[in-house]
Design a protein that fits this description.
CATH superfamily of the largest domain: MutM-like, N-terminal
CATH topology of the largest domain: N-terminal domain of MutM-like DNA repair proteins
Number of helices: 6
CATH architecture of the largest domain: Alpha-Beta Barrel
Shape: elongated
Distance between the termini: 67 Å
Strand order of the largest sheet: 1-6-7-5
CATH class of the largest domain: Alpha Beta
Strand content: 15-25%
Length: 303
């Protein structure tokens, strides 16, 4: 699934190519990608035609294009969604689901939503130009200038759940997915099952810094592409997968100590870690069950 760097690459591409363009036609070629829009396919299209894109924004893994009437086109790429900018005469992609024709000052073009697995989707968010209410509950991401480091550290250390599970909690911190969580944990030498309340404040801050670093580096390389499902708006793949130290490296030597990397099942996904650099946490000791006062000398105690 595209994570923060991949979605940010797409957002930046849309900002370059569609701002100011007027929507002249919307073709919904499959209903599922607009299933979250209560207007239905026809209403979705009607809400967009005639409007102009005036921005391109992102929160976590969601992105939206504010419209000139105060609404917004909200998008989530899901597992395999792509937003491509194409000339009108370009051949239709195999999994093309929605086609949005644009009339620009310099040239006409099309914004195309392509999605093989169709877990992603588009919808028109009423009044959502500033922040769509549908995603207002999602936390800011570590690259957001208004992200509160102190609050993040405080909340992590109050929870007994494993730190990787917390990194993937979009209500706590957004944009960090499975790949970059594993990378940040490897860099910080922390096992993903380590409970948050057993981490020191300095450890949590260090981990947060590594998460920022790895996602910033991925942004500089266009994101991570393991197959053709993630591409930018020009159809190009990122190449940060060549720089991964943990994710996808089961059995390969740890680049720090040489120990073979391990993979374990995690929330219907996989976690990759070094068993030496990232030792598994010890189990908590069970608290002893309180025992009632025993009789003195084997005789019952008086009332």
């Amino acid at each position: 699934m595209p994570e923060l760097p991949e979605v940010e690459v797409v957002r930046a591409g849309l900002e370059r190519h569609v701002l100011g363009a007027r929507i002249t036609r919307v073709d919904v070629l499959h209903e599922r990608p607009v299933r979250r829009d209560l207007r239905g396919p026809a209403g979705f299209a009607e809400a967009l035609v005639g409007r102009r894109f005036v921005g391109a924004r992102r929160r976590g893994k969601y992105l939206w294009l504010p419209l000139d009437d105060g609404d917004a086109l909200l998008a989530h790429l899901g597992m395999s969604g792509q937003l491509l900018v194409q000339p009108p005469g370009a051949p239709a992609e195999r999994h093309l689901r929605v086609r949005i024709a644009l009339d620009g000052a310099a040239e006409d073009r099309e914004l195309r939503f392509v999605d093989q697995r169709m877990f992603g989707g588009l919808s028109v968010s009423t009044g959502g130009a500033e922040l769509p209410p549908e995603i207002a509950h999602i936390a800011r991401d570590p690259l957001d200038e208004e992200f509160d480091d102190d609050e993040f550290v405080r909340r992590v250390r109050r929870r007994s759940s494993g730190i990787k599970r917390q990194l993937l909690d979009q209500n706590l911190v957004s944009g960090v997915g499975n790949i970059y969580a594993d990378e940040a944990l490897w860099r910080a030498r922390i096992h993903g099952e380590r409970p948050g309340d057993r981490l020191g404040a300095a450890q949590v801050r260090d981990l947060l810094g590594h998460a920022r670093d790895v996602m910033t580096e991925a942004l500089g390389q266009g994101g991570t592409s393991f197959d053709a499902l993630y591409v930018n708006v020009n159809g190009e793949s990122g190449y940060f997968d060549r720089s991964l130290h943990a994710y996808g490296r089961e059995g390969e030597p740890c680049e720090r100590c040489g120990t073979p990397m391990r993979r374990v099942a995690f929330m219907n996904r996989s976690s990759y870690f070094c068993p030496v650099c990232q030792p598994a946490p010890r189990r908590r000791r069970a608290r002893p069950t309180p025992v009632a006062d025993a009789p003195v000398g084997g005789m019952p105690l008086p009332d």
